[in-house]
Amino acid sequence: METSAAIALSGGLALAGSLTATVVALLRDRQERLRHRLQLALERRRFQHEQRRWRIEFTRDRELALFQERLRSYPALLKSLGALGEQRSRRIAPARLRRLAGELNELGYGPAALAMLADTRRALFILRDRCRRNGRTPAEMEKLLKARTDLIELLRRDLNHSSLWRSARPLLDWNERALNSEVLLHSRTLTR
Known about the structure:
Blueprint: H1 2-81, H2 94-108, H3 111-115, H4 118-132, H5 138-158, H6 171-191
Helix pairs in contact: 1-5, 1-6, 2-4, 4-5
């Protein structure tokens, strides 16, 4: 009987050992899956961080290239606008206005236009159209001068200068605000 008890005891121990091994294996497997999920989440966050960093760097580099193009092309545009100064514009010849309209049209479709913001380009074409109308009446001349002032303001904004006549914010303020909101959004996702 002792043998059968010893066999039963050894069978029970084997069963207990087998159950213990199974439980340990299940716990290890669960722990591995949890560790794998955490690693995946960490890798996903790193990837998202790299994407955001790349997007910010790309935006910065693009804005710098646009700014450099504006610095190259805007002086010619401003020189053309010199003919529309407050005093000179009162006695400007219609032929000169048509020539200026042609210059503005070329600038609006040239490399400078690629660097302009949409509203700046729109203002350029508004001024072009006003020049084509020749400013025959005092009311038309006032509209032409207002269009010139609007364009100069937007050109200055594109170059991060503050307004001469109005309370417009420089473009740098807009870009800084957008960058800060991107960084804030990024920091929120990292803390999750």
